[in-house]
Design brief:
The protein is an alpha/beta fold. The chain folds into two domains: 133 residues, Aspartate Aminotransferase, domain 1, CATH 3.90.1150; 225 residues, Type I PLP-dependent aspartate aminotransferase-like (Major domain) (Aspartate Aminotransferase, domain 2). Helix content is 41%, strand content 16%. The strands form five sheets. Strands 2-10-9-8-7-3-4 form a seven-stranded mixed β-sheet, sandwiched between helices. Strands 12-16-15 form a three-stranded antiparallel β-sheet. A two-stranded parallel ribbon has the order 1-14. Strand 7, helix 8 and strand 8 form a beta-alpha-beta unit. The longest helix is centred in the C-terminal third of the chain and has 22 residues. It is globular. The chain starts with a helix and ends with a helix.
Length: 384
């Protein structure tokens, strides 16, 4: 077995989730998904697509009509222009991330990654034989901020890509205009490609949408944006996402993807078109639901001893720091055993996540209430 693969370790998040699945009555706030099913209008679209004969291969980069629909939605939401040939449909956003990093990074190369971050970036770089350089967000009062000077110091002649996820999983941090402008300038100075993971762009609370890095980087050869249907439309299990970049970059990516996953399922591509076309009211309602749950979680965590919560600006996660926690995986395991509440340990998102936990609030009000009551009792007993 190649060491690049055997060295990849199972995520502590998966370990907690596996234990929670085996525990009757557990409350699973460890997963990064809503507890609501996909909307009926999207499910009907998949059924109709199957009956209409959309059961064959498409082009590896996706059906032309889906690529066109994605390009239209990008223009509508972000006021930037991409042609269908500059869009590639993928088997979830994870596939877009993985094939991008495989295409950009090899032995002797490094990737600079803004962290804490979902482990796919570090592991995809490792599987490519490269080195990850994680640059932690700075704690700035009640919010996180991007340390641009530290970010630039991490770049050297072997840096091929700078990875950023905004809104962020797990922190809920969202880049400001100044941070985006600064990151774009750093990438231009060093000739580094930016991989911008924007799968939570629609899940924001103080603005309608998180601005894309495509608003700040005009050179599409130096920017790859990844997005997904999973979070925006509650389609996590459907596995449909996309990458957007220059036409030559997209051609390179889909040539590689042909021998990894081939095309996303044809039926699901057709459902994705309907989600993009008819889903705006649904997205609006979903955001309102998450905003209410964010307020609920923020208020409850604010009353708990030893808990400091940076304000989530986007996505659907709270990432509080817990006083006295130096081994978050152990804390998460003990919490699960004692209360039946499953949360993700901060260590699952890199060294800078240690001491924190990630709580997904994409759940019902009743579920969140019960989970936070159990967590509160546990923390109070812990300090007595």
């Amino acid at each position: 077995m190649r060491h690049e693969i055997s060295a990849v370790v199972e995520s502590p998040l998966v370990q907690i989730a596996t234990a929670a699945e085996a525990m009757p009555g557990s409350i699973k706030l460890c997963y990064g998904e809503s507890d609501m099913p996909t909307a009926d209008f999207i499910c009907r679209a998949a059924d109709e697509a199957a009956r209409a004969g959309h059961t064959f291969y498409t082009h590896t980069a996706g059906a032309p009509e889906l690529r066109e629909a994605i390009a239209i939605k990008i223009r509508e939401l972000q006021a930037v222009s991409y042609r269908p040939s500059e869009v590639m449909a993928t088997v979830g956003g994870t596939m877009a991330i993985h094939v991008t990093l495989r295409a950009l990074v090899g032995p002797g190369d490094n990737a600079v990654i803004v962290s804490p971050a979902y482990a796919i970036y570090v592991n995809s770089v490792a599987m490519s034989g490269g080195e990850s350089r994680q640059v932690p967000l700075a704690a700035n009062g009640a919010r996180f901020s991007l340390d641009l000077e530290r970010l630039e110091r991490a770049i050297d002649a072997n840096t091929q890509v700078l990875v950023v996820n905004s809104p962020s999983n797990p922190t809920g941090w969202m880049m400001t205009d100044d941070e985006q402008r600064g990151l774009a300038a750093i990438a231009a100075r060093h000739g580094v490609t930016v991989l911008s993971d924007e799968v939570y762009e629609r899940l924001t609370f103080d603005t309608d949408i998180a601005p894309s890095m495509a608003r700040w980087i005009d050179d599409k050869d130096r920017l790859i944006v990844v997005n997904s249907f999973s979070k925006t439309y509650n389609m996590t299990g459907w596995r449909l996402g996309w990458a957007q970049a220059s036409e030559s970059t997209i051609r390179t990516l889909y040539k590689a993807a042909e021998f990894i996953t081939s095309n996303p399922a044809s039926i699901i591509q057709q459902a994705g078109i309907v989600a993009l076309r008819d889903g705006e009211d649904y997205v609006r309602d979903l955001r309102a639901h998450y905003a209410a749950r964010r307020a609920q979680v923020t208020a409850a965590l604010g009353t708990l001893p030893g808990v400091v919560l940076p304000e989530p600006m986007g996505a659907f996660y709270a990432f509080p720091r817990i006083a006295g926690v130096t081994a978050s995986t152990l804390f998460a395991a003990e919490l699960l055993r004692a209360t039946g509440v499953a949360i993700a340990p901060g260590s699952a998102f890199g060294p800078s996540g240690e001491g924190s936990i990630r709580l997904c609030f994409a759940a019902s009000e009743a579920t969140i209430t019960e989970a936070l009551e159990r967590l509160g009792r546990y923390l109070r007993l812990r300090i007595e």
